[in-house]
Amino acid sequence: MLRFKQLLFTLYFLLNLASCSKDNSNPVAAVSNENSDTTALSSSNSSNSNDETTESSSTIIGDGVPSVFTKIYGASDIYIEDSNVIIKVTGIPDHKSPYFNTSDNMYEDYNGSNLNFNLNPNKITGFDFTYKIPLNPKKSDKSNPTALGSIGVSINGVSFFNQYAGPNNQPLTNEINSFDQYNGHPQPQGVYHYHIEPIYLTSKVGSNSLLGFLLDGFPVYGPEENDTKITNDDLDEFHGHSHSTEEYPDGIYHYHITDQDPYINGSGYYGSPGTVTN
Ligand SMILES: [Zn+2]
Ligand SMILES: [Zn+2]
Fold first, then answer.
1. Ligand showing the shortest atom-to-Cα distance for residue 177
2. Which of helix, strand or coil describes residue 269?
3. 80 and 162 in contact (C-beta within 8 Å)?
4. What is the pLDDT of residue 102?
5. What's the 243 CA to ligand 2 centre distance in angstroms?
6. From the CA of 245, which ligand is nearest?
7. Position with higher pLDDT, 19 vs 126
């Protein structure tokens, strides 16, 4: 019974992850989501975000995990399974946000610079995300477009999303106004995510630094290299390029975040994507 419920929940989750946060235009969907099992099942995780913050420095690292993955300080567990790296996160940010409940001490009023800021109706919820990404990523010969929903994980455990707000490549235009002071926001099920530069992370670890991984196992770096701003012109169609980095002295393909569309990833993954499940 429990397994069946989990399966249902997973299916429900995957279906719903496909819509980002169009609740402004669809209040009925937002209401029905609030009454769904998803909310009920996950609420136990969402209430203790402070515990998550204090626990985040004690990631359990399995045997043989390359040290680069220990940079994902927001993970609870990281281990190797077959030819994949398994990364477990709740997806709750370790920075404040107006998308926490006001009673949560991670709550902070919007204090960013966007005069058109518009709080969406969603609240940050914790999940038991399991990312399974290739240990030794390789270029893929076929096209692997990114899907809506999580396309990768950042070092604090928050999801990266692509440059679209919803199905049929809807641009982020309106959604940008609901990004909080750290450039993130939750979708209707409460999955907090970044579509653009996660400025909490770039101010914490530096704009030249590794900020996470996409599902294909290739790393994501910040908007600068050698303290010089990266532009889309420096990158290929997938929004990356290859050279040596601090973590990969022998060179590696990597994505960069830029301040222009597509921000994190272009026309799909460079490699074959792994999976994220809940
Ligand atoms: Zn979004
Ligand atoms: Zn680079």
1. 1
2. strand
3. no
4. 97
5. 6
6. 2
7. 126
In the chain, where the domains are located: 2-277
* Structure token pair of residue 242: 């290859």
3-state SS string for 117-178? CCCCCCCCCCCCEEEEEECCCCEEEEEECCCCCCCEEECCCCEECCCEEECCCEECCCHHHH
Q: Which ligand is nearest to the CA of 246?
A: 2
Query: Residue 91: left (phi > 0), alpha (psi -120 to 50), or beta?
Result: left
Q: What is the DSSP string of 76-100?
A: SEEEEETTEEEEEE----SS-BTTS
Residue of higher predicted confidence among 19 and 98? 98
Determine the distance separating the centroid of ligand 1 and the alpha carbon of 165, expressed in angstroms.
Answer: 6
Is pLDDT at 232 greater than 60 in this prediction?
yes
For ligand 1, an ion, list residues with CB under 5 A.
20
Three-state DSSP state, 271: strand
Q: What are phi and psi of 121, to 5 degrees?
A: -80, 0
Q: Residue for token digits 């996409």? A: 214
pLDDT tens string 85-104: 999 999 999 999 999 999 99
Q: How far apart are CA 89 and CA 121, in angstroms?
A: 24
